[in-house]
Amino acid sequence: LVDADSIVPCALVNPAACHKAYKYEAATKAAAAVRLAAPWVDAVLHARADTLTHACAANAASTAVPALIALPFEPVLDLSADAIARLVAEMDAIDHAVPAVTHTLGGSVEGYRRWDAFVARGGLNSYAARRND
Question: Which residues, 6+ apart, have CB-to-CB distance to 37 below 8 Å?
């Protein structure tokens, strides 16, 4: 399970509810409502040699309090494919048995391009019938 863009992180949800979209939605409905009602606070990132200052609102009752997060690597600004590959190779907290996805470009621009193409070819018309739930 990759938890890359959730309103409610999977780590906060019973693992049995994380394998089907409708189960995850039901299990996170109340927590999602609280988080969606919270004011948006942009992350503030200040890279230093060994720490990252990250300010965020964890829930509706919290305030943005900066916290220092120790990074397991030296922050880099070089985002070339070679630099990213070297950085990923150094990380212990990921499963290196999962290969890189080389056939799909990443990033928001590419993601929106794929979304627009999906919508343009009528993908939404049959999505409900084809989805895995």
Answer: 60
